[in-house]
Amino acid sequence: MKRKQWLLMVVALVAVGTLAGCGSGSSVTSGSGHTKATAQTTSSSTSSESKLTKDEAILKTAQQLNVDGKYKQSNKKLSAIDLADLSKKGFESLKTEFFALQKSNDKFLLKQSKSNRHQAATTKSGVATTKTTTPATNHSFDSYSKFVGDYTFYNYDSDRLQSDLTIASDGTVTQNNNDGTAFYGTATIKASSATGILSYDVTTDTNKTKSISANVEVDVVWDSDNEHETYYGYTSYDGDSVLTDGKTYQGDLVNEVWIK
Questions:
Q1: Do 243 and 155 sit in the same domain of this protein?
Q2: Domain membership of residue 165 as a residue range
Q3: Which are the contacts of 22, defined by CB distance < 8 A and separation ≥ 6?
Q4: Is residue 17 a part of any domain in this protein?
């Protein structure tokens, strides 16, 4: 009888030990999963903070370039910031400063030196004279007469410099500005099959944007500094000829769109 009682006690002790072991294993497994989830969250948060710190440093450098009058370099520096980052939580302030700086750079770039593109002042014997530069002409527009003529800056804004644009049949280009200045250059045109180009839906008379498929590509070389600007031409649903540079402005707008 005593032997039987002793055996029962041994079996009971073994059972209790087994249950304790299972409970401990479950606790360890659960704790391990929680630790992994916490580690992943911490890693994601650290990565986001690291990106924000990096982007803030880029913005600060770009702002200093703006102060120094180096607007083109400032915009180039801004391009190092991934626009996708600006929509993330915690990037709100950076987004506001980013687009404010971009607008400032663009405004000064438009005003800077372009008014002197057509005429170069020279001094001889102490008397100022004016020398008119004659741009080289071409016949590339002979087959694309639809894109020759007078254009108006779409989404007219008095804060923007652009007013109207004229492309002559010989490729000469004149951009008249709201401050009374004018830019001059020469354009060439060729067929294009580019797709996904950003523009406005000019049939709505609103700021609604759309992606277009280009019919032509117009390359303008401005006289003063040989700077190249590319425009993509297409025909709107209303039959108007439209030129767009396909670039974003202030995040959700288009930099330049011209409608004939």
A1: yes
A2: 135-259
A3: none
A4: yes
